Amino acid sequence: MKKYLLTAALGCLSFTAFANTNPHLDSYTKSVSQTLSKGQRVNVTVNFSLPADRRHLVTLGFDNNQPNAMDCKISIYNAASQRLHYLDCRPGWGEIHFDTPNEYYQNGYRAVISLYNADFSKPSQRFDGNFRFNFGESSSIDNDRLPTWWKKTYEIVGLDAYTDYDGDGFTLMQEYFGNSKPNDAASFPDHDPVIDFDETLAAGTSIYASFGKPVTKWLEITPYNNKKVKSLELIVDTTANARGQSVVAFFYNENNERIYPTYLKYPSGNLSVFFDQPVEVQTLKVELTASHYSSGITARFDAKVNAVFTE
């Protein structure tokens, strides 16, 4: 989970979402108006529908009417339902800044805004809030792996990624991967920058299977920068403990051609594979089939595939 910076203030508010002051970011806004009884919890899901080139969540702004003893949290999940961020939105307003390098938001990423009314002194109270998810252009304007939004923000479009723009001894590439400002000589990477262009993308689903009736579901993973599959991993979580239970994964490219001659299988079989020669795909398609042979039960299998893409 990436670290983040939260700035917040209390006091009188307007109900205008915390303004996005960066003209190079596009906002995905969600307003929540909800009356909660005492002790009630409400979850609001935000399913992101993003353009193909706006996949970096750079900042998240919010404001609300600060009802008494109202808890507010934001969880962000990837396409495999892994929680990436758990954020506090209780203050009246704030803006969260996500570290660079930024996560690339695949289709299926979502946020869940969770509200809980802990004020038991009255029957109910109302929450009014606005949430602004600010996404940046994730393409690389100079074809150097540095995202367009970042280079435009710091006015360094056209400069080579290995330029030391502010004379602090760190290149633009190191500043981006080290979460520092490339135009401020007093801003240094907050850790030793690990520059790794491999991308790990994930997708997952839940499969429910009854006795002797295999169930198949499909997943898709679309790589952005790198197009060659380097490794694959199948992870399955289940508490069913059914007789003969299994989840089998076959892998295809966008033309439905098998890219791996055999399969990954849970629980008895290979659960991962590393390709000596990475296989190029535009879209990785995964066929998952779950089955078992215990009568009288419906088994749930939570299956996830991790795919590493390289240049």
> Low-confidence runs (pLDDT<50, min 5 residues)?
1-17
Number of strands: 17
Which class of the largest domain in CATH terms?
Mainly Beta
Strand arrangement within the widest β-sheet reads 1-7-4-9-2
Span between N and C termini?
25 Å
Strand-residue proportion: over 45%
Enter the CATH topology name of the largest domain: Jelly Rolls
Major sheet size, sense and barrel closure: 5 strands, antiparallel
How many helical stretches? 2
> Could you tell me the mean pLDDT?
91
Q: Roughly how much helix do the residues carry, as a percent range?
A: under 10%
Name the shape in a single word. Answer: flat
Q: How many structural domains?
A: 2
| C-alpha Rg (nearest Å) | 23 Å
CATH architecture of the largest domain: Sandwich
Please, could you describe this protein's structure?
The chain is mainly β. It has 2 domains: 133 residues, Jelly Rolls (Sandwich), CATH 2.60.120; 112 residues, Jelly Rolls (Sandwich), CATH 2.60.120. The protein has a 5-stranded antiparallel beta sheet. Strands 3-8-5-6 form a 4-stranded antiparallel beta sheet, with no helix packed on it. Strand 5 and strand 6 form a beta hairpin.
